[in-house]
């Protein structure tokens, strides 16, 4: 039997079926692995995006409710007792941490008011840092997929095109029916890489901006509350 006929029959390049499923099934196993990995990353990106959208929306509503309660004229002692009895996050956690340090210092008969002001600011900064860390969790995954996804897809494309050229050389046939399916399945890997990378980049930029906005709200509240406590410290001095 002619070796060229054997090579052509063993490879799926001559197939005229260029549907997406057919392109995947005809691809080299390395290209298939790249495609499956990128599809898995795409699913992971959307799962993270949905989780972050829900998280940021819930956090924003919690901040709005806390600020409404804080500036409603209610005693901060009453607000502290209500919030300290349950787990808190975001702005409420910053408030509870500062009030806990305030009460601990005065109940312990502390007299270093300058030290008290510094300790309150430090506990609020730690609380804000923890909150930002919680909001930024898994954003690195989006950045990685957004930056590396196209290159991983390009690797699959290069490998697929190399396999296609080897098959063309073995079959000694350069007709469009032979060339097109192999090139199409190779480019399919790049397309999947872009499908994974484009939403990841968009979501990363959007979520980073949202984290910055919420961090600014936390820092602004910390400055305002620190000023309130500073006035009370001066009155007790």
In a nutshell, what does this entry contain?
By secondary structure, the protein is mainly alpha-helical. Helix content is 85%, strand content 0%. It has one domain (23-236).
Write up this protein:
The protein has helices at residues 3-10, 20-26, 29-70, 76-84, 90-107, 113-136, 139-171, 176-236. It is mostly helical. The N and C termini lie far apart (102 Å). 30% of the residues are buried.
Inertia-based shape: rod-shaped
* Euclidean distance between termini CA atoms: 102 Å
Give helix and strand order, one letter per element, not per position.
HHHHHHHH
What's the alpha carbon Rg, rounded to whole Å?
30 Å
Q: State the helix count.
A: 8
E-strand count: 0
Measured by DSSP, the beta-strand proportion falls in under 5%
Q: What's the number of domains?
A: 1
Attribute tags:
237 residues; mainly alpha; 8 helices; rod-shaped
Topology summary:
Blueprint: H1 3-10, H2 20-26, H3 29-70, H4 76-84, H5 90-107, H6 113-136, H7 139-171, H8 176-236
Helix pairs in contact: 1-7, 2-8, 3-7, 3-8, 4-5, 5-6, 5-8, 6-8, 7-8
């Amino acid at each position: 039997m002619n070796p060229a006929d054997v090579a052509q029959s063993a490879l799926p390049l001559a197939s005229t079926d260029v549907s997406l499923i057919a392109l995947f099934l005809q691809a080299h196993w390395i290209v298939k692995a790249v495609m499956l990995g990128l599809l898995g990353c795409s699913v992971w990106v959307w799962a993270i995006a949905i989780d972050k959208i829900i998280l940021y929306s819930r956090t924003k509503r919690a901040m709005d409710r806390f600020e409404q309660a804080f500036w409603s004229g209610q005693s901060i002692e009453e607000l502290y007792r209500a919030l300290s009895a349950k787990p808190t996050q975001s702005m409420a956690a910053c408030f509870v941490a500062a009030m806990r340090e305030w009460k601990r210092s005065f109940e312990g008969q502390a007299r270093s008011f300058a030290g008290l002001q510094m300790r309150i600011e430090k506990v609020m900064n730690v609380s804000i840092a923890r909150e930002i860390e919680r909001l930024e969790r898994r954003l690195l995954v989006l950045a990685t997929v957004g930056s590396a996804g196209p290159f991983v897809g390009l690797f699959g494309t290069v490998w697929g095109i190399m396999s296609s050229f080897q098959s063309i050389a073995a079959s000694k046939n350069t007709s469009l029916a032979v060339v097109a399916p192999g090139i199409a399945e190779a480019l399919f890997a790049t397309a999947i890489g872009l499908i994974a990378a484009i939403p990841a980049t968009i979501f990363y930029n959007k979520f980073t901006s949202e984290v910055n906005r919420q961090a600014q709200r936390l820092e602004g509240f910390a400055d305002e509350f620190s000023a309130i406590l500073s006035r009370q410290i001066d009155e007790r001095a």
